[in-house]
Specification:
alpha/beta, about 600 residues, about 20% strand, five-stranded parallel beta sheet
């Protein structure tokens, strides 16, 4: 699907003022101007976010009572069970609270439901089992539970104390737990509603630490724990694709520093197997593309408990073994994912009528339930349509599905509008899961397509726009200038890495494919005597198209620093390309502004 390139308009005076007042490159100044920064003071304030800018934990709805109950349970010697989810957000949230309670001298364990056997969130059998094992225990959920009405009612009936902490979209009815902790509870005025499960868990650990201290400050020991646990909160935040603005940006910014200096053995070995060099400055992409997939693979293939053990054990030998194991699980996941993605494409091609649908609903019995979400993400990106992948079974009955969105469509709302066809669902704007009777999938496909809107002409988006911060020359992309752009990070959802374009670019040599299955693209761009490598992940099919294109080409990309064996160089990440046309852009090159 062709993408429309939209260039940011710039006030030349604002760019010059930012360059002068901040002492920065015109490249950084132009990006700041494109994002609404008008003077040096605003720019410096944005770049210098501090941990002290985080809101006090007791502002979070429900957290004060939750922290009081947990501290009371610790002091009473009661068992505290952290009930988590099997994705990275749930695993890191579980690990944060486990470390907190353990360090405080409490008796703590964790329960992670099997993705393949139990599914997401609280379930009735687990509630019964936990109660029968220890009726006096306190159960604290992380990253799940806010929609578990029936499960909370059972806990209340049994007399099992239950605290729910979550961030997902809630229903009109709240669970009857002892306490609900959520940044968007009805009547809440919490300043930042976009925390993920690990972010909420970090705030709860902070509140617990204050109560174990003097009420105002945590003890030096607990303060050191909080600083180290920011690394785990950052992993959950990036992996759950919540907006990297406000508190989330602060958690990830400082979490990356904590990650580089981590004393958690499992994180050390996880970075080692992921090939992340210790000397490298870590980025959110290192979490998103290297660390998170390995943690996620454990949950996707039914081994999430081992991922929590990896992040909580202090036995270095065991940590090394677990890191190697989740690395192998990730390789297995990649194999399953590639096979599922090929099958999904074949099904789409076999149903040309789906091209009229605004959203895709793809079902097959060969789909692996643990890999549905990541395949849905790849299909949504490839076809630029919100996508739901459903794993069916030959026996019929209830099937599981997982969906991912694109171009800002509210996936949770779209699914909720079709809820009369479902057995259950949950999630948020960007990602959601569902359960459905297999004989209703076709009906759901039509209803979902209507909700997305293209079939009805309501709210559909034929061409996803690509927003470009500035048009540049390759000479503008010096190592110093690109490194300066990193100050804007960390980058992620709602705070993307700066995007640039170059028109009439020359290829230094023929494009080539790389990676497993030739999935990725590598090429080199030339601008006079400047040559820069450019890669495009998942776009190996562009190699022949670019090589055969006639005339000068225009490329749209982001820029980063590639570190390899102690050397660093500028590397471009290609987002889109097209045949260049005269007068393609009205955006002035950066060097023109500098002049």
């Amino acid at each position: 699907m062709p993408r429309h390139w939209r260039f940011a308009s710039h006030d030349r005076g604002v760019v010059e003022r930012l360059t002068r007042e901040m002492g920065c490159s015109p490249l950084l100044a132009q990006v700041l101007a494109a994002r609404g920064i008008e003077n040096g003071q605003q720019g410096k304030q944005f770049l210098s976010a501090k941990m002290t800018d985080l809101h006090h934990p007791d502002q979070l709805p429900g957290i004060s009572e939750a922290a009081d109950r947990i501290v009371a349970a610790i002091r009473a010697g009661r068992r505290i069970t952290i009930y988590g989810d099997y994705d990275v957000d749930g695993v890191t949230a579980t690990s944060i609270l486990w470390h907190c309670v353990k360090l405080a001298g409490g008796t703590v364990d964790y329960y992670i439901p099997s993705r393949l056997e139990e599914g997401y969130g609280l379930n009735l059998d687990a509630i019964r089992t936990l109660y029968e094992e220890d009726p006096s225990r306190l159960v604290v959920t992380v990253d799940c539970g806010i929609c578990s009405i029936e499960e909370a009612a059972l806990a209340r009936q049994l007399g099992l104390e239950l605290i729910i902490t979550d961030h997902h979209t809630m229903t009109d009815t709240l669970p009857d737990a002892a306490v609900n902790v959520h940044p968007r509870l009805p009547g809440s005025n919490y300043p930042f509603p976009e925390l993920c499960g690990a972010g909420v868990a970090f705030k709860l650990a902070w509140a617990i630490s204050l109560r174990l201290g003097d009420g105002v400050k945590a003890s030096p020991r607990m303060k050191a724990f909080l600083i180290s646990s920011v690394a785990l909160a950052a992993m959950g935040t990036v992996a759950d694709v919540v907006p990297l603005v406000g508190e989330n940006r602060i958690l990830v910014k400082f979490g990356l520093k904590s990650l580089a200096e981590t004393g958690i053995p499992g994180l050390e070995y996880l970075m080692k197997v992921a090939g992340i060099e210790k000397e490298k400055t870590l980025s959110a992409e290192d979490i998103g593309f290297s660390l998170a997939p390995r943690i996620n693979a454990a949950g996707r293939l039914g081994q999430a408990r081992l991922a929590v053990e990896l992040l909580t054990t202090d036995n270095r030998q065991r940590a090394a073994q677990l890191a190697d194991y989740v690395d192998q699980l990730n390789k297995n996941r990649q194999t399953v994912e590639r096979r599922m993605f090929r099958l999904a494409k074949e099904l789409i091609e076999a149903h040309p009528e789906w091209s009229e649908h605004g959203g895709l609903v793809i079902a097959h019995e060969e789909f692996h339930p643990g890999v549905m979400g990541i395949v849905a993400s790849r299909v949504a990106e490839a076809y630029q349509k919100p996508t739901i992948i459903i794993a069916t079974s030959p026996d019929g009955g209830i099937a599981q599905g997982s969906g991912r969105t694109c171009w800002g469509f509210d996936l949770h709302a779209g699914i909720a509008a079709c809820s009369d066809l479902l057995e259950g669902f949950g999630g948020h704007r960007a990602a959601a899961g569902l359960r459905i009777q297999q004989n209703r999938i076709d009906e759901f496909r039509e209803a979902f397509a209507q909700q997305v809107g293209v079939g009805e002409g309501e709210g559909g988006k034929a061409e996803p726009d690509l927003f470009i911060d500035a048009e540049v020359m390759l000479h503008d992309l010096t190592t110093q200038a690109v490194r300066e752009l990193e100050q804007l990070g960390p980058f992620g959802a709602a705070h993307r890495r700066p995007v640039f374009s170059i028109s009439k670019a020359q290829l230094a040599d023929a494009p080539v494919t790389m990676g497993g299955g030739n999935r990725h693209l590598s090429l080199k761009l030339r601008d006079r005597d400047r040559v820069i490598r450019c890669v495009a992940f998942g776009k190996g099919d562009w190699a022949d198209e670019i090589a055969q294109a006639q005339g000068p080409l225009a490329f749209c990309f982001s820029a980063g620093i590639n570190y390899y064996r102690g050397f660093e160089s500028v590397e471009l990440h290609l987002h889109d390309w097209q045949v260049s046309t005269v007068g393609q852009s009205t955006a002035p090159p950066v060097e023109a502004i500098a002049d």
